[in-house]
Every structure is written in structure tokens, then in C-alpha cells.
Amino acid sequence: EAGVVQSPRYKIIEKKQPVAFWCNPISGHNTLYWYRQNLGQGPELLIRYENEEAVDDSQLPKDRFSAERLKGVDSTLKIQPAELGDSAVYLCASSLGRGGSQETQYFGPGTRLLVL
Amino acid sequence: GENVEQHPSTLSVQEGDSAVIKCTYSDSASNYFPWYKQELGKGPQLIIDIRSNVGEKKDQRIAVTLNKTAKHFSLHITETQPEDSAVYFCAARRSNFGNEKLTFGTGTRLTIIP
Lengths: 116, 114
Description:
The complex is a heterodimer. Chain A is 0% helix and 47% strand. By secondary structure, chain A is mainly beta. In chain A, the strands form 2 sheets. In chain A, strands 2, 4, 5, 6, 9, 10 and 11 form a 7-stranded mixed beta sheet that branches. A 4-stranded antiparallel beta sheet of chain A has the order 1-3-8-7, with no helix packed on it. The mean pLDDT of chain A is 92. Chain B is built from no helices and 11 strands. In chain B, the strands form 2 sheets. In chain B, strands 2, 4, 5, 9, 10 and 11 form a 6-stranded mixed beta sheet that branches. In chain B, strand 9 (86-93) and strand 10 (102-104) form a beta hairpin. The mean pLDDT of chain B is 93. Chain A binds chain B through residues 4, 33, 40-45, 48, 55-56, 91, 93, 98-99, 103-110, and chain B through 4, 6, 32, 34, 36, 41-46, 49, 89, 91, 93, 95, 97-98, 100-102, 104-107.
């Protein structure tokens, strides 16, 4: 079974430029998460989708960050404009759904962003 | 909200010895506690998890214990091997349909000395 796929794996941009990350979750997984992981820290949730609905975006900096999951499968996370403090690893995870073992989250390899 | 503290931040053990990593959580309603292993350049990988209706779970060389009263849980790795070297994260979550946020600890860098 293919895991969570993310692209690009690495991105270097100058501050004030836009950047986008793409995620393809495990087939059949209804729940999709975007996390940000700063150096030396654990992942922190940015947004959670149930199918195409964003059900928890309380930690998403909405002035510059946006996300979409139009058909309830792939998702895109965008930053515009990027700031120096946005340098981090952006992780996508997915789970089957709600209840018991269906809530187990599987992570992709992440996109490592460096803002210069 | 939930707060998860993890100790130690770094841990070095001789190959073959045991390693123990401890976490505490603040939200008494949390009922799901996974452990993730993250190797360099990769995403976190689930290695074991435990739910609040059990006190211990074991999978080969890995075990997790949970003390709900004290609100702490621990990861135990026995007979450590070089491939166990990685960063380990604990996490906690309250699964009550509508609040499934997973809160992670700050990680433990485990180094196995050959």
C-alpha cells in the first residue's frame, strides 16, 4: 500500500515569495492533516480536513496561509507571502476516519522549506 | 488545551541495553497515546500506541505503559539495536468526535552506541 505522498521534498525561496505544498493521502483515507514541524520540536497541527471540509483550522495563520482539498482527496497548502519564520518542515498525514484504529495517523515524508 | 512534556531530550545507551522515554500530559480527558519514530529526513512513523482502557501494551522489543491517575506514559525499548537510533515523539489526544487534535511532545533523540 502506498503511503502519504508529498511534493516537493525541498523548497528554497526568498521572503515575500509564494510557495505551495501538495499532499496525496493514503487511498481511502477521509481525514487529512497538515502539520508544521519547527527544528527540534514536535509537529503542530495547522489544519484538519474531514473529506473536503476543514473542521479544525484554528492554528492556521489565515493572513498568509491557505489550504484546500477540493475533491476530498489531494490537498494543497499555500503560503503567500512567505516570511523568514516560516522555515520549517511541513508534514501531511492522513487517517481512515473516526473511531478506534481508524484514527491512526500516517505521515508523509514532509516538505522542508527554507525562506531566505 | 493539552500540554505534553517529554523527557529526556537526548538519550544515549549502549547497544543491547534498554531505553526508557517518559511523557506527561495535562488533559485528563485524553484517551489515546501514540509513539512515533522519526528518522532523519523522514516523516514520523507510528511504532506503538495505547488507549486509556489498558495499562500496558507490548510489541516485540517495544512496550508502552500508561498511568492515567498520574497522567504519564512511557516508552520502553529493550535489547536496543543501532537501527533504533532516531528521534522519538510521544503524543496525546482526546477522541470525542470533534476534538481529535494530536498534541506532540518535544521529542527525544535516542542514540545507540555500538
